[in-house]
From TrEMBL:
The record marks 142 as: Increases basicity of active site His. It holds the Pfam family PglD_N. This is Transferase hexapeptide (Six repeat-containing protein). It comes from Lampropedia hyalina DSM 16112. It comes from the Bacteria. The keyword Transferase applies.
């Protein structure tokens, strides 16, 4: 019986980006890639980019003392639902972090994060569960990031910002620095559009776009 097996949940776009990071992370620990799998709820092939693809049920059937998985699915509501499934079935959330990501002092990261190459997390930052930080994103000092938050590539989150649960920050967006004791807040379930420049707080469930960012619409948070 293997001691532990590992999986990237999701074999589509983001999952295929996370898988090499997962493989390299395990190899650095002396763990063979044969103990690493994709999980896909509706697999249409046995392998993707050289890695075996299993249904969730088949992953659970692998004889192992422990099962670990990172959820590489961008939709945060789906991510939360799958996290509940993993918890119910005793699968341990797994954080996958690129070897060249920079994590400085006083940073805490919740379980199940996916931290892509060239991400920087500076100092005194608290990040919640199942965070996705895509390529070249950064989070600066004294920020608080909630659960199931997604950063697309190249997000610039400056200091003293609070980002609440399920917010989505689009590619290349810039979030202006807040003030000590008076952070700029991105509300729960808010969407910040691609390339937006956010200069003031964003209400929960709101979509903002443009430079400076303006309200486009609201969503269900």
């Amino acid at each position: 019986m293997h001691q532990t097996v590992f999986a990237v949940y999701g074999a589509s776009g983001y999952g295929r980006e996370v898988m090499p990071l997962a493989r390299w992370q395990l190899e650095a620990q002396g763990i063979a890639s044969e103990r690493l799998f994709f999980i896909d709820d509706h697999p249409d092939s046995e392998q993707v980019n050289g890695q075996r693809v299993l249904s969730y049920a088949d992953f659970l059937k692998i004889p192992a003392i422990e099962h670990h998985a990172v959820i590489a699915i961008a939709n945060s509501a789906v991510r939360e639902r799958l996290a509940g499934r993993l918890q119910a079935d005793g699968i341990t959330p797994w954080t996958v972090q690129a070897g060249n990501a920079v994590v400085m002092d006083g940073v805490t990261i919740g379980e199940g994060a996916a931290i892509s190459p060239f991400v920087t997390l500076t100092s005194n930052i608290r990040i919640g569960r199942h965070f996705h930080a895509n390529l070249y994103s950064y989070v600066a000092h004294d920020c608080v990031v909630g659960d199931f938050v997604t950063f697309a590539p190249g997000v610039k989150c400056n200091g003293n910002v609070v980002i609440e649960d399920h917010a989505y920050i689009g590619t290349g967006a810039v979030i202006k620095q807040g003030q000590p004791g008076k952070p700029l807040v991105i509300g729960r379930g808010a969407v910040v559009g691609m390339g937006a420049v956010v200069t003031r707080s964003v209400e929960p469930g709101t979509t903002v776009v443009g430079n400076p960012a303006r309200v486009m619409g609201t969503t269900v948070a």
